[in-house]
Design goal:
Protein name: diguanylate cyclase
Order of helices and strands: HHHHHHHHHEHHEEHEHEE
Keywords: Membrane, Transmembrane, Transmembrane helix
Number of strands: 6
Strand order of the largest sheet: 2-3-1-4-5-6
Pfam families: GGDEF
Radius of gyration: 32 Å
CATH topology of the largest domain: Rhopdopsin 7-helix transmembrane proteins
Largest sheet: 6 strands, mixed
CATH architecture of the largest domain: Up-down Bundle
Transmembrane segments: 36-55, 61-83, 90-111, 117-136, 148-167, 179-203, 215-234
Enzyme class: transferase
Length: 418
């Protein structure tokens, strides 16, 4: 019987293989060919879809694993078809072994889609256990017994996979759709498996129920494939957008990405308190010209790390010039923005750079401005830029708030009303 949620050798198929008779008759055999062609065609399309996705998008390993599961499943169905023509116990064992492999690959691919895995040791152990049980019941039990035992084992395997795949409230809609589609597929498989305890028509290839079940399961598999591929291409597009908007040296947004993020916020016309923090590395050109670009790049890279560490997840952090950076914060008042800016200033001042001479201090000047979003970004930027200019004019290595700074010592923060 099935080593896969879709189907597999049945008790009836076992009798055909061992007795060498065409139990379906001429018309029935023709129907079996039609079933085979339909299943093989569908499975090859599904497998090919994952391969195409692997070549055209981000090359994620789970795509090849899922493709392999459908290819192995197609081969298992092909061997199952020949059970009606050849007396071969080896063919029967091979077909069921492939069904089990396909199931394990399918579960592993789904987990890798979530960034998780069963691991090679678990997967090998699962195959040896399930195939060993099948061989044991092949020798000492009946086809009906081994069908129930193996499919129950596969139900347990998929249940474990779903427990590890389990969705959270903040997961994407794609992951949620994938999860519930798999649940629907598993429920159908369970009903078919345990329904065999009450009637044999479930496993009869000539029955309407069997044929309808195969079509239903194949359709669910196709829907699942479409959902996985859709999520893959959406993630690939997001990744491309991230690469497009991300400054590769510092890890923060580049100027275009920063401006796009701000345009998105102001397009929503959200009424909120916003803060803009402009940061400029002091005498960076001297460091770059004296020690070379590798040393300058090391400073920029470290400063990017500091910015990402000291800001909130909701803050928009960008590199808007060679040594100029900006932080746009929603819901952060002047005190909070100045405190964040001071942490960044202190962190950089205390950062040791082996390639930078001691007399070339690595510090930054920071200007902070806060305003209601209704006033517009231009007003906010002008205030922050004036504050940054004030920090530079007052001796650098300091934080100045808003547009009318007063003299302060390094490390102090000037807070002047808007």
């Amino acid at each position: 019987m099935s080593g896969r949620p879709f189907s597999g050798p049945t008790d009836r198929f076992d009798r055909v293989a061992l007795k060498g008779e065409d139990a379906c008759g001429v018309d029935g055999h023709r129907m079996t060919i039609m079933q085979l062609l339909m299943l093989l065609g569908g499975l090859l399309i599904l497998a090919g879809s994952f391969i195409v996705a692997w070549f055209t998008g981000v090359r994620r390993a789970y795509l090849l694993v899922l493709s392999s599961s459908f290819l192995v499943l197609a081969l298992a169905f092909l061997l199952t078809f020949f059970l009606g023509s050849f007396r071969s116990r080896g063919l029967l064992l091979s077909a069921n072994g492939l069904f089990i492999v396909a199931q394990i690959l399918f579960a592993e691919g789904l987990l890798q889609r979530r960034g998780k895995t069963f691991g090679i040791a678990f997967n090998v152990t699962a195959f040896v256990t399930l195939f060993g049980l099948y061989c044991l019941f092949e020798i000492y039990g009946t086809a009906f017994q081994r069908t129930i035992v193996i499919n129950a084992g596969l139900v347990v395997l998929m249940a474990l996979a779903m427990l590890r795949f389990w969705i959270r409230r903040d997961d994407t809609i794609h992951d949620k759709l994938i999860f519930w589609t798999i649940i629907a597929l598993g429920v159908m498989h369970c009903l078919r498996t345990f329904g065999m305890l009450f009637t044999g028509i479930i496993v009869d290839p000539n029955s309407i129920f069997w044929q309808a079940t195969q079509i239903y399961i194949l359709m669910i598999a196709m829907i699942l494939t479409i959902e996985i591929l859709a999520s893959h291409f959406v993630e690939s597009l997001d990744r491309l957008n991230t690469l497009r908007d991300r400054d590769q040296l510092t890890g923060v947004l580049n100027r275009e990405g920063f401006e796009r993020a701000l345009a998105g916020f102001y397009a929503e016309r959200s009424a909120a308190l916003v803060a803009l923090t402009l940061l400029d590395l002091d005498k960076f050109k001297i460091t770059n010209d004296t020690l070379g670009h590798p040393a300058g790049d090391a400073v920029l890279r470290a400063f990017g790390e500091i910015l990402l560490k000291e800001t909130r997840a909701t803050d928009v952090v960008g590199r808007i010039g060679g040594d100029e950076f900006a932080i746009f914060s929603v819901g952060l008042d002047r005190q909070g923005a100045c405190a964040m800016a001071e942490r960044i200033r202190i962190h950089l001042a205390h950062r040791h750079f082996p390639d930078v001479a001691e007399h070339l201090e690595t510090t930054c000047s920071i200007g902070v401005a806060t305003a209601r979003s209704e006033r517009g970004y231009e007003v906010l930027y002008r205030m922050a830029d004036n504050a940054l200019y004030g920090a530079k004019r007052l001796g650098r290595n300091r934080v100045v708030a808003d547009s009318a700074p007063s003299a302060v010592e390094p490390g102090a923060v000037s807070r002047v009303g808007v």
